[in-house]
Amino acid sequence: MKRINYILTTTFVIIVGILPATASEPLNVMSFNIRYGSAKDGNNKWENRKDLVLDTIKDADPDLLGLQEVLGFQADFLKKNLPGYAFHGVGREDGKEKGEYVPLMYKTTRFALERSGHFWFSKTPDDAGSKSWDSSLPRMLSWVALRDLKNEEIFIFANAHFDHRGKVARLESAKLMRKQWEPYEGDVPLIITGDFNTTEDGEPYATLVNGPEDASAKLVDSYRFIHPKRKPDEASFGGFKGLRKGSRIDWILHSEKFTTHNATINYTHKNGRYPSDHYPIEALLRFR
Asked: How many CA atoms lie within 13 A of 52 on its CB side?
């Protein structure tokens, strides 16, 4: 029988236990910045592309979905039209409904919620709406601890959005994420999705993926694991124009408790229209 212990922190509830050595079902993971719906995007405004956003998600059929730049009315649209998913997220301005969400959605037939929470990328991470360093806006992370009903495995699924202007804020945000995970790394199965507003050349990426020199565990970049040779056309931001030149700023990362079986950038478009200014990214993972 599996033993589970809950370790409470101010941010994560970390689950540590003896995991069963059973074969696991694949986990289809998607990260998708859907572009905030009040943006003045002309012909690419939310009303003109919301159905394409929905169809893109439905076609991918993710078990786990991390979304960025979601406003309340967009959240309502997705919750209404994705009835097989649970939703966890709050507005970054007040920890309730004001401002953008970084919500998580997950299939209710596949997962049971054990715990959930949020924290802000600031010196006071438990204070809703807080910001620090050179961050232009409050930024945050939402997380859930899920039990996979297929095999009783328990893991953390987290979703983040780093600041688009603050170079220091991005690095400190990565350090804060590491700080919350490091005491239990190696024991905590972890999946992270997000828009990190920096490429794999930057310090935040190195901080997250490699950690400090004495880190006992690393994070795996699912896309780079499958595509080890870097190419010049891997951009995950296309600006509604289908541009591919550049590097990824959207990543699906995971701890070494998982292995990646496939990873892609989804270039879905219809009649010349893209669902967002970012491309959704996908990864197929399994527990080791």
From this structure: 23
Is the pTM higher than 0.90? The answer reads yes
Q: Which two tokens stand for residue 249?
A: 């700023």
- The greatest distance separating any two alpha carbons of the chain, rounded to the nearest whole angstrom, comes to 57
Compute φ and ψ for 95, nearest 5 degrees.
75, 15
Delimit the domains of the chain by residue range. Answer: 24-287
pLDDT at 7 over 90: no
CATH class of the domain whose range is 24-287: alpha beta
> What sections of 85-195 are H helices per DSSP?
167-181
Please count the other Cβ atoms lying within 10 Å of the Cβ belonging to residue 261.
Answer: 15
pLDDT confidence of residue 218: 85
**Range 226-235, long-range pairs (CB < 8 A, 24+ positions):** 226/260, 226/262, 226/263, 227/263, 234/265, 235/279
pLDDT tens, residue by residue, 143-174: 999 999 999 999 999 999 999 999 999 999 99
Q: What is the DSSP letter of 92?
A: T
Q: Which two tokens mark 115?
A: 């715990």
In Å, how far from its chain's centre is CA 194?
4
**Closest Cα partner for 278 from 245, 249, 253, 255?**
249
Task: Provide the pLDDT for residue 1.
Answer: 28
Rounded CA gap, 35 and 240, in Å? 10
Please give the Cα distance from 79 to 120 (Å, whole number): 24
Instruction: Give the mean model confidence (pLDDT) for residues 72-96.
Output: 98
Angle of helix 72-81 relative to helix 46-60, nearest 10 degrees, comes to 40
Per DSSP bridges, beta strands 64-68 and 104-107 are antiparallel
pLDDT at 8 over 60: no
E-state strands within the chain: 4-8, 13-17, 27-33, 64-68, 85-88, 104-107, 111-120, 140-148, 154-161, 190-195, 219-221, 250-255, 258-265, 281-287
